[in-house]
Design goal:
- Strands 7-6-8-5-9-10-11 form a seven-stranded mixed beta sheet, with helices on both faces.
- The protein has 15 helices and 20 strands.
- It folds into three domains: 78 residues, 3-Layer(aba) Sandwich (Rossmann fold), CATH 3.40.50; 180 residues, UDP-N-acetylmuramoyl-L-alanine:D-glutamate ligase, CATH 3.40.1190.10; 141 residues, Mur ligase, C-terminal domain (Protein-Tyrosine Phosphatase, Chain A, Alpha-Beta Complex).
- 35% of the residues lie in helices and 21% in strands.
- By secondary structure, the protein is of the alpha/beta class.
- The two termini are 36 Å apart.
- α5 crosses α8, α5 crosses α9 and α8 packs antiparallel against α9.
Length: 425
């Protein structure tokens, strides 16, 4: 939503908004003069006049007092997908979709197209690295958009180049089955003039039309990153993990379709240091451990993040995980346990509920994942720390020099990660 606010402001709109609590995104928009920001939702936050449109995210229910006030006044009460559709219609759009890797791949594309001199705009779910925010409305012809399947807003986009990284059922409240999800991605790809798709049989069959199918060649890890081949070109990447190298190949192929010159693209990618909350280095703990944070909130993402962390050669790998949503925790508990057990020490927090209520999921908590992880851990240390204070106390005893600790989750666990950093190091 912060990205849409920045774009609307750049296009001349007077923008206000509200949230139930302050966030860094809100504070940056306020400091930039983009947003008249309010904390807590009240009818009074809706501006006076008839030329007002209210745009809401999928997390805001119909009974929200501001949405209700807008409807009572006869004002437009629009889902974010409609605004996103309008914005994408104003530029040639590259839309990055998939269960995993959307933010990182979109951020890579920003750096590639900028290095190639194409002056891209972008609307991405996190900061794109290099001191850049999560959004920018440029005068260039290309717009890079992270296409979200969770609320089907990807189907509202006007897309010239579609990039599909993978398909896996993650949002169980929106899709009853994997086949229903696949049909949504099939519709998304059908709306694009060109497509770049990971070369897998189950993904190939989703596209009926011209497509570039990509895969990874000659990959090997190196200090703080990896190297691989893209056609005849050697490429060096400064973020670790085979999954990030695969994301980079997809981004390079999409940029090539957009007209970016190969050597400039490779140079732009070499400077990429990672998107916000995507294996982002935080510093050191008081005990001398290296601290990273990551947005991983699905078993596949956790496994990829921990595998990437291993390539950095830590003495021990410590995973701190805050489950996101009771529904996902219950449905994928065994998969979570297997993924987390790749670490040498695991600390599990309680569930970040987001839009869900604990009373609707009796018996489901972070302890659910403690049990499944213990079952897979072959005696390795698994700790239950439901709150941040308990987690800090546990990690103060556990973390040692030479350890690498990665704090993972899509909730507010990033706050814990920053609190663990020792300011004196």
């Amino acid at each position: 939503m912060s990205g849409y606010a920045r774009a609307a402001h750049a296009l001349g709109a007077s923008v206000s908004g509200s949230d139930r609590a302050s966030t860094p995104y809100l504070e940056r928009l306020r400091a930039e003069g983009v947003l008249d920001a309010h904390i807590v939702h009240t009818p009074e936050n809706v501006p006076a006049g008839d030329d007002v449109e209210l745009v809401h995210s999928s997390a805001v229910p119909a009974e929200n007092p501001e949405r209700r006030a807008a409807r009572e006044r006869g004002l437009a009460d629009r889902p974010r997908a409609e605004l996103l559709g309008e914005l994408s219609a104003m530029r040639r759009t590259i839309a990055v979709a998939g269960a995993h890797g959307k933010t990182t791949t979109s951020a890579m594309l920003v750096h590639i197209l900028a290095a190639a001199g194409l002056d891209p705009g972008w609307l991405v779910g996190s900061s794109v690295g290099g001191g850049l925010e999560n959004s920018h409305w440029s005068e260039g012809e290309w717009l890079i958009v992270e296409a979200d399947e969770s609320d089907r807003s990807m189907l509202s986009l006007h897309v010239e180049i579609a990039l599909l990284t993978n398909v896996e059922l993650d949002h169980h409240a929106s899709f009853a089955s994997l086949e229903e999800l696949r049909e949504a991605f099939r519709e998304f790809l059908a709306g694009a003039s060109q497509a770049v798709i990971w070369d897998r049989p189950d993904l190939r069959e989703l596209r009926d039309g011209p497509a570039v199918f990509y895969d990874l060649s000659d990959w090997r890890p190196c200090e703080q990153g990896s190297v691989f081949a893209w056609g005849e070109h050697p490429v060096r990447l400064s973020v670790p993990g085979i999954h990030n190298a695969l994301n980079a190949v997809g981004a390079l192929e999409a940029a090539k379709l957009a007209g970016a010159e190969a050597q400039l693209s490779i140079a732009g990618l070499a400077d990429f240091q990672g998107a916000g909350r995507r294996f982002q280095s935080l510093g050191q703990s008081a005990g001398g451990a290296l601290l990273y944070e990551d947005y991983a909130h699905h078993p596949t993402e956790i496994a990829a993040t921990l595998a990437a962390a291993r390539t950095l050669g830590p003495k021990r790998l410590v995973a701190v995980f805050q489950p996101h949503l009771y529904s996902r925790t219950a449905l994928l508990s065994e998969e979570f346990g297997a993924a987390l057990a790749q670490a040498d020490v695991v600390v599990v927090l309680d569930v970040y509920p987001a839009r869900e209520r604990p009373e609707d999921y009796p018996g489901v908590s972070g302890l659910t994942l403690v049990r499944s992880t213990v079952a897979n851990a072959d005696g390795r240390q698994i700790l239950w720390a439901p709150g941040f204070e308990e987690a800090q106390a546990a990690l103060a005893k556990v973390l040692e020099p030479g350890d690498l600790c990665v704090v993972m989750g899509a909730g507010d666990v990033d706050r814990l990660g920053h609190e663990l950093v020792c300011a004196d190091v």
